[in-house]
Design a protein that fits this description.
The protein has about 140 residues and is an alpha+beta fold. It contains 4 helices and 8 strands. The protein has a single domain, classed as Sandwich (Jelly Rolls). The N and C termini lie far apart (about 50 Å).
Length: about 140
Amino acid sequence: MTARKDDAANDHREARAVRTPRLKPIVFNAGDILFEEGEPADKAHVIQSGSILITAIRDGAEIEIARLGRGEFVGEMALVDDAPRSATAIAEETSECILLTKTTFDKILARADVVTGALIRLLAKRLRDLTGRVTGG
């Protein structure tokens, strides 16, 4: 096996170790709130099935930010920058998600190299800034 294949095999083993058993599945029923705008962030979710509506209050009115589905993350930005939730997440239908706690996320991020960690934080900041400008928040 070449060094590149060895690295890929190691990365795959590490990814599997991170997925199980620390990441826990959770089911939300239609209408369940995953988190609300303004709350402190201590978790994110990876959507396995169903759909999640993201909304925010701007100028006294609720606006739709996004609809997320299978394979997408919800709530990840706040795990990176420790800022309060910028939006509310609501299950539109029965939705199964994998729970990613801040503690687990921090452990994963700590294993990343310095450049990767810095890049993730920078991208989260830029995305939060852009979202605020677009939504008027």
